[in-house]
Amino acid sequence: MELIWFVVFAVLLAGYFALEGFDLGVGLLMLGRPQERRDRMVAAMAPYVLANEVWLVAVAGALFGVYPMLEGPVLFGLYPVVVAMLLSWVLRDAGLWFRRRMDGSGWRSFWDLMITLGSLGLSVGWGVALYAAATGFTSSLLHPFGLGLGALLTVLFAVHGQAFLNWREGGKAARLLLTGLAAAAPVIALLIGSAGFLMASSAADSSLNVLSFMVLPFAPIMVGAQVWVWRTFRGAIRTPSFF
Fold it and tell me: How many CB atoms are located within 10 Å of the residue 127 CB?
């Protein structure tokens, strides 16, 4: 059971990086673009944003349900980073929801900047969090390697976002798959390196059995919804979008 839940957790976390990674990348690439181009970039990712964010909710649920011993180190060891990432998430989503609520280039430009800043905060925050996890939450949150990993993830997400935009505008899906794998590569490496520790830190079998009974039946629904989104909106970009 520990192996099954490790695989589930690994797929959820890597899937989040591969899917939400292009949303963050598009947000990063909006900086300095003309308003018409920014509108089209947001419209390209709009159908996927909410579906991709569900993966993070699933990751958090699996982390604290399957690995309760990690709740303290993650929440307290990464407290400033977690708070900063939550604020970045709120800022990014506020930018998406508010940018079209009023007319005016100044209003939209302000919220588009919030999308970029929120995407940047999440990208760098994930790098810092991954490095801290790799060192057992003993390193400084401002360690150069952690900040460097954050910069690397920012670049990987931006490249992934560009590949996504190219695909939405008629490009090949192969490049999108490759950049998605690259965006998820750091977290995949961490999962491989920590597999033994994670499985040893799993909850008791009785708890995992209850969790399996409650959660796993909903997995096909989550996967089916994701497939539906990609099949439904893979065509031409629809403008204006609801964002």
Answer: 23
20-38 CB burial, b ≥16 within 10 A, e <16: bbbbbbbbbbbeeeeeeeb
Integer Cα distance of 62 and 7 in angstroms: 11
End-to-end CA distance of the chain: give it in Å, rounded.
Answer: 41
The pTM for the full model equals 0.93
Please tell me the distance from the alpha carbon of residue 101 to that of residue 105, in angstroms, as a whole number.
12
pLDDT at 73: 81
Distance of CA 9 to the CA centre of its chain: 14
The pLDDT tens digits of the residues spanning 197-208 come to 888 888 888 888
Question: What is residue 108's three-state secondary structure?
Answer: helix
Tell me: the pLDDT tens digits for 142-163? 999 999 999 999 999 999 999 9
C-alpha span between 42 and 45 (Å, rounded): 5
- pLDDT above 90 coverage of the chain, percent: 57
Alpha carbons 124 and 116: distance in angstroms, whole number: 12
